[in-house]
Amino acid sequence: MQPLIHINKLNLFYTSFHALKDVTLTIPEKAITAFIGPSGCGKSTLLRTLNRMNDMIPGTRIEGSIAIGGTELYSNEVDVETLRKKVGMVFQQPNPFPKSIYDNIAYGPRLHGIRSKQKLDEIVETSLKSAALWDEVKDHLKRSALSISGGQQQRLCIARALAVNPDILLMDEATSALDPISTLKIEELVQELKDRYTIVMVTHNMHQAARVSNQTVFFLSGEVIEYSDTEKLFSNPTDQRTEDYISGRFG
Amino acid sequence: MSIFQDANRKQIANRRRVDWLLHILFVIATSVGVLALCALIIDVLVDGVARLQPQLFTEFPSRKADGSGMKSALVGTVYMLLIMLPLSFVLGVGAAIYLEEYAGKNRLTRLIQLNISTLAGVPSIVYGILGLTIFVRLMSLDRSLIAGAFTMTLLVLPIIIVSAQEAIRAVPKSRRDASFALGATKWQTVSRSVIPSSLAGILTGVILAMSRAIGETAPLVMIGALTYVAFLPNSLMDSFTVMPIQIYNWISKPQLEFKELAASGILVLLALLLIMNFSAIMLRNKYQKNV
Ligand SMILES: Nc1ncnc2c1ncn2[C@@H]1O[C@H](COP(=O)(O)OP(=O)(O)OP(=O)(O)O)[C@@H](O)[C@H]1O
Ligand SMILES: [Mg+2]
């Protein structure tokens, strides 16, 4: 597993609140990395620095280094629209647009200038297939995306993210609003996607992290306490606090 | 049976009585408004229905009631709407988008916000004075159609801005996030996600503002709209009249025939208002389904 993302001594402040403290971490390419830790420890914050969604929160300040494939994200040479095209994101609540299934998937490609109907048709089909949703919706692509189930909506959001051809996929508790069967489907989907994409997921469900991920990062109040192969972290943690957390003694 | 035993029957009876009393009160409160409107409509119908004839739409006003119509006023009102609508839509929605999506939340924008909300409540005559000073005198547009339309645009702008802001604010943040996360710019997000999601609300506000405008008389009297116009405006610089002014003019004449004409004028105005408000509701229902 080649490292793709390098984070070095990253500090993030929300106005005066110090939300990430000296975070140093590497994230491997074409693998699944899980962020775990108690509520408010900064998992979502770190995830949002990877596609610079924090830029929109007024008063956010960043120090240190965060680079993808050697390119510093907060440097002048990176324009944020291109970055977000390369780093897709799936949110906790499924958030399809109130448009048809087709137009939801085509939204991203259209943003980036693809007009040809034939090309769009092709993208819609391959994206929905990648998100394991094609067979369920192929006969009613014109239906409103709000009319399908929550689990299907979330897979639609994954397909929508894939449609702009990203390298990295960020998922912030993407299954926490779903029922167990939909969750399972998405876990299986993520397993398939990791051959083609680098996936970073936040989860509150330790079993999920253990089941799905290759690497796990444990956070506590804005610090990375420990990160390593998932198997090693869960079977043989080096830090006492990690052990306490995964054995359910706090959090 | 035992689980009901500790119920305090007296207290429950009391609560029911209060419930019933308030119910009656609310029914009365509602009926006051509805009855007043009914009384108005019936009264106007009785007076005006006889003169609700084609000539009302095809004839200009004249000294004799029998040959009189409100063609010039009707056309004046329609022209006015046609000028105002695009103008106030672009300016009003533009301002709302700026304030909601682009402007930072600081002291200055809060001050602007307060001003706009206050302007929405300023009496319309004040806009008449403003229009007289700026458009009629300063820009020497005289008592023209365009001066009237500009004045009315100022009058409805704050209403449109405030209602468009509300509609835009109601679009959930998650929908903007979804768009930004796909690499959209601000304008792409606004134009492809925020506006489509809020369009119904925006249009509803615009229509309601327009229906307010076509009933307004005071500001137009102020800037000097004529009360007797026997021609159609040919250019933006021509003088003009509008329906409520024509109605006012007829009502103030002593002869009974003119009072009847006024009543039929009111009926036309009411019908127009009804159509506009109805289309606002239809719009809202149509778009609410897919929001
Ligand atoms: N926009 C913001 N402004 C100020 N403080 C914030 C903001 N967003 C998050 N925080 C704070 O930063 C800290 C980290 O928040 P973050 O959302 O990253 O936590 P998290 O680990 O994702 O928690 P959860 O598991 O509950 O989602 C929290 O203490 C939170 O209160
Ligand atoms: Mg979070």
How would you explain this protein's 3D organization?
The complex is a heterodimer of chains A (251) and B (291). Chain A has 251 residues and is an alpha/beta fold. Chain A has a single domain, classed as Rossmann fold (3-Layer(aba) Sandwich), CATH 3.40.50.300. Helices cover 36% and strands 27% of the residues of chain A. Chain A is built from 10 helices and 10 strands. Chain A has helices at residues 43-50, 80-86, 101-111, 117-130, 134-137, 150-162, 180-193, 206-212, 230-235, 240-246, and strands spanning 3-14, 17-28, 32-36, 60-68, 71-72, 87-90, 168-172, 198-202, 215-220, 223-229. In chain A, the strands form 2 sheets. Chain A has a 6-stranded mixed β-sheet with strand order 6-7-8-3-9-10, with helices on both faces. In chain A, strands 2-1-4-5 form a 4-stranded antiparallel β-sheet, covered by helices on one side. In chain A, strand 9 (215-220) and strand 10 (223-229) form a beta hairpin. The radius of gyration of chain A is 18 Å and the shape is globular. With 291 residues, chain B is mostly helical. Chain B has 2 domains: 2-51; 55-290, MetI-like (MetI-like fold), CATH 1.10.3720.10. Chain B is built from 11 helices and no strands. Chain B has helices at residues 9-48, 54-58, 71-102, 107-119, 124-138, 145-169, 173-181, 186-215, 218-223, 243-251, 256-288. The longest helix of chain B is centred in the N-terminal third of the chain and has 40 residues, at 9-48. Chain B is flat. The two termini of chain B are 48 Å apart. Chains A and B meet through helix 2, helix 3 and helix 6 of A and helix 7 and helix 8 of B. The structure holds adenosine-5'-triphosphate and magnesium ion.
